Amino acid sequence: MQNDQRPLAGIKVLELGQLIAGPQASCVLAYFGAEVIKVEPPETGDAIRGWRKLDANGTSYWWQSIARNKKSVTVNLRTDKGRALVKRLMGEVDVVVENFRPGTLEKWGMCPEVLHGSHPQLIFARVSGYGQDGPRASQPGYASACEAYGGFRYINGFKDRPPVRPNLSLGDTLASMHAVIGVLLALFGRVKSGRGQVVDVSIFESVYNMMESVVPEYSAEKVIREPSGSTLTGIVPTNTYLCADNKYVVIGGNGDSIFKRLMICAGREDLANDERLADNAGRVLHEAEIDQAISDWVALYPSAEVLEILADASVPGGPIYSVEDMFNDPHYRARGLFEPVNYAGGELEVAAIHPRLSETPGRTDRGGPELGEHTKEVLTGFLGISDKELSVLQDENVV
């Protein structure tokens, strides 16, 4: 787009691989202005085109979000000519985002060591389950297994039940965010050094990065953090409470002054002024007593009234939102969290991507492309391939 002032305008990205972690990283880069060329297998395309809910044409609504702003080029990487085309495209871009199993690009002669010989400025963002080296590197790494291996599943849920997974591919999304951070750091580093580098992102390490104080606490005192249901170990009170209308609210009253205000809201001035509960250490020792007091109070009122009382007292609290609640909430609308996309079936809304920049914000220009929609544009424009050559490649099922 001409005169694009977004921060990544002018940066060219080649996306290789399928499904979530790598493509979601490229989605964020495209949102903030990068030109993202997505390579897909002919005929089938990225598997996510057919995942979950589908429109009348058999394409997933998810595709309109994760593939927004991208260009689709079909290339058969199982052929020598297809790999040769992609290798040439690598020489024309700033960043390659790939999420093949480690060793795949090496087998194809398209790895960083090869490409950096002729294109030392190239940045490789490599997303995998377990990283590019180490004993587990070659193992298939889906988000579910890597969330478990990275420590998240162990501490998530209730002690007396099996470990719980969220109804999302959390590990993939965390890995995509780490890949974006890595690409931005590498681009900044390239300004200083003039050279690209490899950004090695694993799903399990992206989950592991979220573990807060789990590691130092074990290192110092051999404390193993256990699952704690809807509470947070060592911080009191913070929990989920059932109101009179059978709806849950989350209340976080763990600051010393906030706790006092919360107890006054609950009609428990005795606990607000109890010296045993003056700081978090004391409240941890009496967690059950405090949670019972809060539970007894919220059970008397509907959730909206509880939240209003808390807001008036400057006590953090919130509802448990479904996506329907999000769509109906004026704050979501005021913050611009939904963006329209036109697609073959009409128009839908996708989630805006944050952070929101004051001067050069990102945006959704268009939804996911049709399969191979930009093959001719990219191969002729980037590589100078003639229409005749392109026709031959199509006949040979290369593109």
Ranges where pLDDT stays below 50 over 5 or more residues in a row are: none
Structural class by SSE content: alpha/beta
Name of the CATH architecture of the largest domain: 3-Layer(aba) Sandwich
- The share of residues in helices is 25-40%
Top CATH class of the largest domain: Alpha Beta
Report on the biggest sheet.
6 strands, parallel
Looking at the structure, the CATH topology of the largest domain is Rossmann fold
Number of helices: 19
Number of domains: 2
Strand line-up in the sheet with most strands: 3-2-1-4-5-6
Structure description:
By secondary structure, the protein is an alpha/beta fold. The protein has two domains: 12-209 and 335-395, Rossmann fold, CATH 3.40.50; 238-242 and 248-319, formyl-coa transferase, domain 3 (2-Layer Sandwich). The protein has 19 helices and eleven strands. The strands form three sheets. It has a six-stranded parallel sheet with strand order 3-2-1-4-5-6, with helices on both faces. Strands 7-8-9 form a three-stranded antiparallel sheet, covered by helices on one side. Strand 1 (12-16), helix 1 (21-31) and strand 2 form a beta-alpha-beta unit. Helix 1 (21-31) crosses helix 8. The model has no long low-confidence stretch (mean pLDDT 96).
